[in-house]
Design brief:
This protein has 415 residues and is mostly helical. It has helices at residues 2-8, 18-38, 42-52, 71-97, 107-113, 116-129, 135-177, 180-208, 215-235, 238-243, 249-268, 273-276, 282-307, 327-331, 339-357, 380-406, 408-411; strands at residues 362-368, 371-377. Helix content is 70%, strand content 3%.
Length: 415
């Protein structure tokens, strides 16, 4: 299905249905984020560094080349920034051009749902043009991406909690109605999630702390584990389960895993990293959190694409193209979702992806010896943002567990 959609992005074949249009935009987003990710690979970074030192090279990226500075990582991240900026410019243009569209057949709806070869060309051109932006402009975009990423994380938190409860209900129903195999699967899933949380916590203690000192890291890793255990115990209290039938250990484990990931990302972005890490390079230690973060990014983006419609009469997912002879009728149908907000989501997702790819590191202009230029610098703001967001995950989860028991009158119609 996705392969057929991808092929039709570059040609004027059959018209996409509403589902096909959303899949097409997801593929464009995934393509650009993967290209930006590739820019962070060792081979590409080395090639970009070599080319940037050529006297007649058309792109100028001024990173500090002192011996103790990772010039290649700096240049690779600048390239990733420019790729993502091109995509953000494209999504912003699409957001503005589809504002107020009510039908697929109107001019703004047509721009959103068709003209694929033109849109792909515009996207590629914008990403190419972004390489001509000066380094100061690109580096200053960090704070805009930082703020927009926090907004995205709030959305991600709400999505994870809602999805965790729904998934848990489905698993529990299967557990109650099924045989021994389904019960084994339920227990195995819970055990795997619990082991994953404990394993990540142990890894953080091993790589981000030392026997003496590093009390700051030890405190935040420990408090994250304690908060998770509090939520787990809360979900098993009989009064809580009676007031909220969806309360069980599975959603706590699912959300606890995300909470632990945020703590991990925060600890890895601390400026005094080298004093407490046992890994040779802070950038190498950040690689696992980048991989996990990008996987989560694609999962959430796909979830949004699937669930972005606002009614139950959405186009079936096996109907990627408009049926033969139904093109004119499809143009007169009301939009199943808000086109502009759809593009706003992908702007936020792209900013978050940029933060993940950079491990929340920022560019800082420094003069070291006789050489001046940008270096990658870890940020206290990034650390606190991730840690506070992990606490917000726990607080939202804890409230969702105890609120029906504390305020039953308000939740009788919801539960």
């Amino acid at each position: 299905m996705c392969c057929g959609t991808g092929c039709c992005l570059c040609c004027s074949c059959r018209s996409f249905s509403s589902a096909g249009v959303r899949i097409a935009y997801f593929l464009m987003f995934a393509m650009m984020m993967c290209i930006a990710w590739i820019m962070r690979s060792d081979g590409v970074q080395s090639s970009l560094t070599t080319q940037s030192n050529w006297p007649h090279w058309i792109f100028s990226i001024s990173c500090n080349s002192s011996p103790n500075v990772d010039e290649e990582a700096c240049i690779g991240l600048f390239a990733s920034y420019r790729i993502v900026l091109g995509y953000i410019f494209f999504s912003a243009i699409m957001c503005a051009m589809t504002l107020g569209s009510s039908r697929r057949g109107d001019m703004r709806g047509s721009i959103h749902s068709s003209w694929w070869p033109v849109k792909i060309l515009v996207l590629l051109v914008l990403s190419f043009v972004a390489f001509f932006l000066d380094d100061d402009t690109v580096s200053n975009f960090y704070w805009a991406a930082f703020v927009l990423s926090l907004i995205y994380i709030v959305f991600q938190i709400l999505m994870f909690i809602g999805t965790a409860y729904r998934s848990s209900d489905s698993v529990v129903d299967s557990f109650e109605d099924g045989g021994s195999c389904r019960r084994f699967f339920t227990y195995a899933l819970a055990l795997i999630l619990f082991i994953a949380i404990i394993a990540i916590t142990v890894v953080m203690f091993i790589f981000f702390t030392k026997e003496s000192g590093c009390d700051f890291n030890k405190f935040f890793i420990s408090i994250n584990l304690v908060l998770f255990l509090v939520a787990a115990v809360t979900s098993l209290i009989p009064k809580v389960q009676e007031a909220n039938p969806s309360s069980n250990i599975l959603p706590v484990l699912l959300i606890g895993l995300f909470q632990t990931y945020l703590c991990w990302a925060g600890i890895a972005s601390r400026p005094d990293y080298d004093e407490c890490t046992s890994v040779s390079s802070s950038l190498k230690a950040q690689t696992p959190s980048i991989v996990v973060g990008m996987i989560l990014l694609f999962i959430v983006a796909w979830w949004f694409v699937v669930n972005s419609v606002r009614n139950d009469d959405q186009t079936p997912w096996n109907e990627v193209f408009v049926a033969d002879g139904q093109e004119e009728a499809a143009k007169d149908e009301d939009n199943e979702y808000n086109f502009s907000l759809f593009h706003v989501f992908f702007i936020l997702a792209a900013c978050y992806g940029l933060m993940v790819l950079s491990s929340w590191n920022k560019f800082e202009e420094k003069t070291i010896g006789s050489d001046s230029g940008y270096v990658l610098s870890q940020s206290n703001a990034a650390f606190w943002a991730n840690v506070i967001m992990s606490w917000l995950v726990w607080l939202t989860l804890e409230w969702s567990l105890v609120a029906p028991a504390c305020c039953p009158d308000r939740f009788d119609s919801v539960i």
